[in-house]
Amino acid sequence: MSGARGATAAHGSSGAHGSSGAHGSVEILVEGETVAGRAGQTIAGVLLGSGRVAWRGAQQGERGVFCGIGVCHDCLVTVNGVEGVRACQREAVHGDRVEREVRG
Amino acid sequence: MTRVAVLGAGPAGLAAAEAALAAGAQVTVLDEGARPGGQFWRHRPGLTDPRMQHGVRRFEQLQSALAGAVVHSGAAVWSVELREPGERGGAVVLRAAVGPADGARREAVVVEADALVIATGAHDLALPIPGWTLPGVTTAGAAQALAKRDGVSVGRRTLVAGAGPFLLPVAQSLALVGSTVVGVHEASRIGALAGGWLPKPWQLLGKSAELAQYAGALARHRIPYRIGSGVVRVLGDERVEGAVVAQLDADWRPRPGTERVIECDAVALGHGFTPRLEAAVMLGCEVTGDRRGRFVVVDDGQRTTQPRVFAAGEVTGIGGADAALAEGAIAGYRAAGLAQDDERLHAALRVRDRMRRFARRLETAHGIRPGWTAWLDDDTIICRCEAVAKRAIVERAEVPLRAMRLATRAGLGPCQARTCGRAVEAIVAEARVSATGVTAAGQAVDGSDSAAPGGGDLGFERRPLLAPVRLGELGGADRPTCGEN
């Protein structure tokens, strides 16, 4: 399922600056790249916070978050090898491996 | 002791749980969220700005009441069913997979109860717009959830568009998480707004203070607010680079020559709300309305047409959190066995009746008007999951809805038409009307199609599973079932 292209980078840098496992922060691996977020954020929140807006291949173009509340399934990612996880619903856990999906 | 199950832990579900506990029932709450609060209460202390959160004290009360209940958060409830009288066990059986969202090894939970309160709420209704599949276009609810729950903004320059007072707190939240809000565009024109909001202003006490607070926030953040205006096209190559806004007529048809381009990197769309009816439909509760809005039928005690099943909140009508709290309390007391004239119900009954009037005002002032389809192109994607364009739907508008869906795949993707259902139905109805030359877009156009066995026009509302679960998880319950159809 995982494609070759990384998630589309949006405005600015990817914010991989958090210290590993420190209180209040989490680090996840997105297509092999370390991305820092804040503890309690969803995977979608971490991805958006790092400047990414799209991370899934669809029939026409890329998709990211649309509904944000688990309804639309646009934001699906593979988490720790499990496909079809809604990034807007899953809370990020330190060390999660996140890969993009392509649905065509 | 009466066992009450509550499906959903937003304002309606929490109020139902609190009331049922107060009336002496044994209460189990099942909710898909990682923690109680629903779409309304999402604030995370230390993570997000408390200024985005309203009614915090009431939430704290409800949370402490929950200590007396069994609460399953992270519960994907995929089946609800009623037992015949005389069968062993509870009257209502719910099956859920409990654990991290969409996880592979969630726990199978079966809950039996004597009565159920359905408080499943609603999700945003965003109408299709050319370019709306570009990354950076989200629902208004997504912008709100990401701000309130995650403390992030969907964009740096965000345009908010659609209809209804919900756009105002969304704009405020976006500003608080650091986005420039380039404008709030309300589709309704002054006539509709005045018709909904001006009569009997004394009924709006409290609500007008809330609206004034948002108006103040818009002014402080210098956010322009336009009425009779909407996004008619989203521009960009790989992501949002701008949006075309236009003046809309009273039926929301774009006025030619009024288009202008606004530079932005995000567009948050919210044209209304769609109630989450799946559980009520699966249980056979009567649903009323047409493609412009369907809701669960309830009596004065929030009881559905199934005697052991109650419903509260947005599933019975879009009225906001105050209405949901009142309805939830009534449903919880009644589900626990209190009489309708018990004095503990009085306060909630008064609030509910006031809020029902508020819901009617909302629909009058901001309800979706039929002219919106004029902003679509033939190749605009309507069904986002399956990338089905308007043209494909129009070409098969004459065949029954179910056959159209199978031929085009519209509404058959992972979201099960939750996102596009209402738009598809509107496009089909319009195409049928223009094909037959009938002028009034009557319900008979839709009603001729029987998507729902056993009659009734349920359009896309009937779904075999209530929530997405993995196939292996269906086997984790006491007996395999895939719903009723």
Overall average pLDDT of chain A: 82
Main sheet: strand order of chain A: 3-2-9-7-8
Mean pLDDT of chain B: 89
The outline of chain B comes out as globular
Secondary-structure element order of chain A, as H and E?
EEEHEEEEEEE
Rounded to an integer, what's the Rg of chain A over CA atoms?
A: 12 Å
Share of residues in strands of chain A: 25-35%
Major β-sheet profile of chain A? 5 strands, mixed
Strand content of chain B: 15-25%
Going by helix content, strand content and strand pairing, the class of chain A is mainly beta
Rg of chain B is: 22 Å
- What is the structural class of chain B? alpha/beta
* Mass-distribution shape of chain A: globular
> How many structurally independent domains of chain A?
1
Name of the CATH homologous superfamily of chain A: 2Fe-2S iron-sulphur cluster binding domain, sarcosine oxidase, alpha subunit, N-terminal domain
Amino-to-carboxy terminus distance of chain B: 34 Å
Helical fraction of chain A: under 10%
Number of strands of chain A: 10
End-to-end separation of chain A in angstroms reads 10 Å
Task: Label the CATH architecture of chain A.
Answer: Roll
3D architecture notes:
The complex is a heterodimer of chains A (104) and B (485). Chain A has 104 residues and is mostly beta strands. Chain A has a single domain, classed as 2Fe-2S iron-sulphur cluster binding domain, sarcosine oxidase, alpha subunit, N-terminal domain (Ubiquitin-like (UB roll)), CATH 3.10.20. Chain A has one helix and ten strands; from the N terminus they run βββαβββββββ. In chain A, the strands form three sheets. A five-stranded mixed sheet of chain A has the order 3-2-9-7-8, covered by helices on one side. The longest helix of chain A is centred in the middle third of the chain and has 7 residues. Chain A starts with 7 loop residues before the first strand and ends with a strand. The N terminus of chain A is likely disordered. With 485 residues, chain B is an alpha/beta fold. Helices cover 30% and strands 21% of the residues of chain B. Chain B starts with a strand and ends in an 11-residue tail after the last helix. At the A-B interface, helix 1, strand 6 and strand 8 of A face strand 9 and helix 3 of B.
